[in-house]
């Protein structure tokens, strides 16, 4: 198992959650980690990414200013702090990793990512 997410749950609109993604094996040495989400009957959407070597981050317009991605390299863990949650944030959230360095546009699409977690459900009502 390379990536394991946790921290999902149900929360009221305006609330907060923190997702965690623990990396192991080859995934732990990835260059870029991303968070994606997928709502029912919708495509997988890039939410945020972080470059492992310098901690630089990027966000989709839909979450910018509300979500924060961070990492604890010693624990091989990537976090997604979500605040001011809205019902439209309801989705399965996935952690992903790749050895590639990419532009913001490239880092927010699923194709370049090799490793994926099993997902954690976030429901906002």
Radius of gyration (Å): 13 Å
Number of DSSP-assigned strands? 11
Give the class from helix and strand content and strand pairing. mainly beta
The portion of residues forming beta strands comes to: over 45%
Low-confidence stretches: none
Query: Helix count?
Result: 1
The dominant shape is: globular
Q: What does the main sheet amount to?
A: 7 strands, mixed
Q: Give the distance, in angstroms, between the N- and C-terminal Cα atoms.
A: 32 Å
Oligomer: single chain
Helical fraction: under 10%
- Please tell me the overall pLDDT: 95
Elements, N to C (H/E)? EEEEEEEEEHEE
Task: Explain this structure.
The chain is mainly beta and 125 residues long. 3% of the residues lie in helices and 46% in strands. It has one helix spanning 104-107, and strands at residues 3-6, 9-11, 17-23, 32-38, 45-51, 57-59, 67-72, 77-82, 91-98, 115-116, 120-124. The strands form two sheets. Strands 2, 4, 5, 6, 9, 10 and 11 form a seven-stranded mixed beta sheet that branches. Strands 1-3-8-7 form a four-stranded antiparallel beta sheet, with no helix packed on it. A hairpin with a 4-residue loop joins strand 7 and strand 8. It is globular and about 35 Å long. The mean pLDDT is 95.
